Amino acid sequence: MGIIKQREEDASRALLVLKGEIDMHTSNSLRLDLLALVKKKLPRLELDMAEVSYIDSSGLATLIESVKACHAYGGVMRLRRVQKRVMDVFRLAHLETFFELDG
After folding, report:
1. Percentage helix, strand, coil for the chain under 3-state DSSP, each rounded to 5
2. Model's pTM, two decimal places?
3. pLDDT of residue 2
């Protein structure tokens, strides 16, 4: 099973519920899914990260690329329900202001 546990999509947004670890083993698959959604130019892309227990540099790079791609067409990507352990990684990388995050 991949990192995406559930997917909801309509004309105004996409919501991906993620589960597990976003690392070198799962980030490429997630990247492909996110870029496919970016191509649709939805106004909002939301990632529910309540069940994401870990993220590494490849996962951060995937999310950074997706945020930049959303911003390029005026879209927004939001990371929701980020666990403290994962939020700490964003803070250590000084990315807490780059992403739209909520814990």
Report:
1. 35, 35, 30
2. 0.93
3. 80
